[in-house]
Design brief:
Helix content of chain A: 40-55%
Strand content of chain A: 5-15%
Radius of gyration of chain A: 35 Å
Strand order of the largest sheet of chain A: 9-8-7-12-10-11-13
Largest interface: A-B, 139 and 139 residues
Shape of chain A: elongated
CATH superfamily of the largest domain in chain A: DhaL domain
CATH topology of the largest domain in chain A: Serine Threonine Protein Phosphatase 5, Tetratricopeptide repeat
CATH class of the largest domain in chain A: Mainly Alpha
Distance between the termini of chain A: 74 Å
Oligomer: homodimer
Structural class of chain A: alpha/beta
Largest sheet of chain A: 7 strands, mixed
Number of domains of chain A: 3
């Protein structure tokens, strides 16, 4: 599978440089590329206990993404899924450890234990105070005496980080870290394996299956389980965590293992909060990933008030999502005004006659407009308009015919309900805006012009874009000179659309040029037919 | 492809509930499920201009993830890739708009324009002050008059958000938003299409190809280009942005379109910063995603000092990565002490004879230890030890034989370099810790015990775990009683490992039980042979 990288050899160093470039100078690195890849706080003054973590890369944002005030002091990065060397860890220790000493936070993998362990020994020989803790939060293999260290490591980073930042001494910080480690339990589930750069993707998870209890280095899960829904997946995970749950204040950390979408993570989080196992939530967010694994993990920890406060202490790190209380979601009532107020019907014979005439004209034009539309579209413009016209005729008894200020929005609402699609919405905008202008005292023609301007603004089309505006705009401009002049202008405008081969807006923007040549735009044609019909009636 | 969801019908509402659950009460929603999905600030008091955005779902964290003080007031969410209805938008407007009015920030898609546009009209008819801006930052199709709205929308959210939060009036905020829209340009590239829930995945991007200029709804890109490296991909994207770049202070927003790993995003960011086109950086982060699309986009904007300040204004939103200056990365020198100081050689015939004898014993046992190891491992324990022993014999002239405090760490460093693998590191930890204890005044046997304790701590193994500790620990315990007693104890310990069928640590933890039965652990056997050899020499 293709990936956005240059060479496998430079993958991690370039990624670190990218991370640092985006840190605004907050992060520095040691001059040890390619072998020694140590990221540390640029503002670090060694006045407090230093926290150092790290391990193989491929788990971003862990660990370098958590380097900053209140969390890690430095991260020692190995190649993808490979422990950093003793020298790299030692360089990290020596670079950031002052008189207050340092705590190494190591995930329980043999390579990491040994390399961090020997580096600690050599740093001690050089006079540094070094403590080391090993995180083993994975409960996937309950009988294994050496559980792996996974996303629960974040609890250690955050709590130890807050204590170190508060000036606690090394013994206190290390003790707190060990207490956390004793209380954290994690388990993950995935629908697919991860893609290790330069290696073919392993395809071991069958259709309808998920892996439960996987590690973060692509190692197989403890078991493959049937996968049905997010809810069932979360219930399975929570059931596994069951023995580690009890009374007390629990914090749950919901970790995206890589490529799970935010939508899915939120659905999983919803499922988790429904179980009621935790009072506080960290995430959902990618914190300890496994490259692009399509999965998630949940870590839980019973917290003392002091631990909870440490988890909640704010830090200025984009990768840390914060610790939020799980509270009932505030649900506000729907506001009034969503349903348009039914207008009070009123009578006006002239207006009624005009609307009936307009409707009849559109009904009569159904076939010809459909045929025109078929040449450049889906052939339904005539029927769409005729259907709306028939409904309009049937609604006239309910209409406030004597009051244009009310009639315009009423027409708009009627058309938006009976016409459907973009056309209905556009006409609704037209009539609503016209009504608004009327209400503000505009004369009728000015109000209609206001409606057109709003349609133009919202739809993004103007004259020359091969839409109904090409007929409606000149028709309205000519209307002060009478309906006959207006009809003439509409016809000229509609006919001009036959030579517009590039539609700039509306549906025709997606139609090949050749299909447009020589045919009027059906919407513009409808407007022209309408004004012509009204004009001829006047002449009759 | 399987996804973590329950039903497609409930996908968006459950995801919103998950997001809200993790907001700690900061976010509320309207009581309009399933049709009306409006998320808004729970603390909103309508005292300032409200900012409302939204559109189809599937772009998370946009838009609900950006609802909070300093950014959006409300987000109106449609189904996946489908515009919310007029009623939903209207509900959002009416719920949060006070006397200061509201600004609708709409991405340029017909459905969104129409539905937000009509809702605005209806809200105006109800007396609300509503302005609407349409973001059209996508430069993929330069000749298209209606460019799509993509990740550049975030510039509008943030800058308008900061101004609204500062108490600016609607006209000022809307004007600022329009100015931003006029300056933002975006383009994306992807290696794969996205997976729309409930639909089969389209497989239109061939091997070795990438799509350039894609939209965020799975629509095909403008062109398929050859894909080679991240650097080339970024150069291609930056070349497209070229006409939109110039003098001035540019901010680049690097957006993860979905499933691109943080490693890849950081490599791309490194490539971007190398081009020097921007002075400030937002991201990399998922901000405007397209479900699980394996791609990225870059948006650029020339900023005034006021706009830059608005982008940099801090907000308490996990989804917003902040705006950081791109500065030269601080690179610190490697610390002193990484290379172990070469000890000053010194002579001690007795120590030299002991080390030679130990080496010879291990060399002699090469074959038998290999054979033993072959039964439960990869058959190289004997050779590993013999190789190290031969190197040790050759190094004795360089060793500080007269000073145990120096000799122990020197032995450790020698072994870690010549032995390789876990064994070398473990012995290095053993001798370094012993040396450290010696330096602190411990007698020899106590110092060796200290070394063993450290190995136990770092390696996570103790007596009974079927490792060399099963022989070494009793041997050291018996050593005060003489080498003969010690050898006897080592032998008993080594032989006990033949009945330990479940290895709890070390390599044998991964070997099937049946392969362990009846065979001594090779490491423990080596220790026993060593002590027995030393004891027999004494007796000779």
């Amino acid at each position: 599978m293709a990936q956005f990288l240059n060479t496998k050899a430079n993958l991690v160093t370039e990624a670190i440089d990218g991370l640092l470039a985006g840190s605004g100078g907050a992060l520095a690195r040691l001059d040890g590329y390619p072998h020694i890849k140590v990221v540390y706080r640029a503002d670090w003054d060694k006045s407090k206990v230093a926290l150092i973590s790290g391990g193989g890369s491929g788990h971003e944002p862990a660990h370098a993404g958590f380097v900053g005030k209140g969390m890690l002091t430095a991260a020692v990065c190995g190649e993808v899924f490979a422990s950093p060397s003793v020298e790299a860890v030692l360089a990290g220790i020596l670079a950031v450890t002052g008189p207050a000493g340092c705590l190494l936070i190591v995930k329980n993998y043999t390579g990491d234990r040994l390399n961090f362990g020997l580096a600690a020994e050599r740093a001690r020989a050089l006079g540094r105070q070094v403590e080391m803790v090993v995180v083993d939060d994975d409960i996937a293999l309950p009988e294994l005496p050496q559980p792996r260290g996974v996303a629960g490591t974040l609890f250690v980073h955050k709590i130890a980080g807050a204590l170190a930042d508060a000036g606690e001494d090394l013994k206190t910080v290390a003790e707190a870290a060990r207490t956390v480690i004793g209380k954290v339990a994690s388990i993950g589930m995935s629908l697919d394996t991860c893609t290790v750069p330069g290696s073919p993707k392993e395809d071991r998870i069958g259709v309808g299956k998920a892996e439960l209890g996987l590690g973060i280095h692509g190692e197989p899960g403890v078991e493959q389980v049937d996968f049905s829904t997010a809810m069932h997946a979360m219930d399975t995970v929570v059931a596994k965590l069951g023995p580690h749950l009890g009374q007390g204040t629990y914090v749950a950390l919901v970790n995206n293992l890589g490529s799970t979408t935010p939508l899915e993570m939120s659905v999983l989080t919803h499922a988790l909060t429904e179980t009621g196992i935790a009072a506080h939530l960290i995430g959902p967010a990618p914190m300890m990933t496994s490259l692009d694994m399509h999965g998630f993990s949940v870590s839980v920890m019973e917290t003392s008030p002091r631990e909870l406060a440490a988890l909640q202490a704010p830090v200025d790190l984009a990768a840390w999502p914060g610790t939020k209380s799980i509270v009932p979601v505030p649900i506000g009532p729907l506001p009034d005004g969503l349903t348009p107020i039914e207008p009070i019907p009123s009578k006006n014979d002239k207006v009624r006659a005009t609307l009936e005439r307009v409707s009849d004209l559109l009904i009569a034009a159904e076939q010809s407009l459909n045929e025109l539309d078929a040449k450049s579209g889906d052939g339904d413009t005539g029927s769409t308009l005729a259907t709306a016209a028939r409904a309009l005729k049937g609604s006239l008894d309910r209409m406030p015919l004597a009051d244009l200020t009310q009639l315009f929005p009423a027409l708009g609402n009627e058309l938006s309900q009976t016409m459907g699609g973009s056309s209905g919405v556009i006409l609704a905008i037209f009539f609503n805006a016209a009504g608004d202008a009327c209400a503000n005292g505009a004369p009728v023609i000015a109000a209609l012009r206001e409606g057109l301007d709003r349609v133009s603004e919202v739809g993004g089309a103007s004259v020359g874009d091969r839409t109904m505006i090409d007929a409606l705009s000149p028709a309205l401009s000519a209307l002060p000179n009478g309906i006959v002049a207006s009809a003439t202008a509409a016809r000229v405008g509609a006919d001009s659309t036959a030579s517009i081969h590039r539609a700039r807006a509306g549906r025709a923007a997606y139609v090949p040029e050749d299909n447009l040549k020589g045919h009027n735009d059906p919407g513009a044609e409808a407007v022209a037919l309408l004004f012509e019909g009204l004009a001829s009636e006047l002449k009759d």
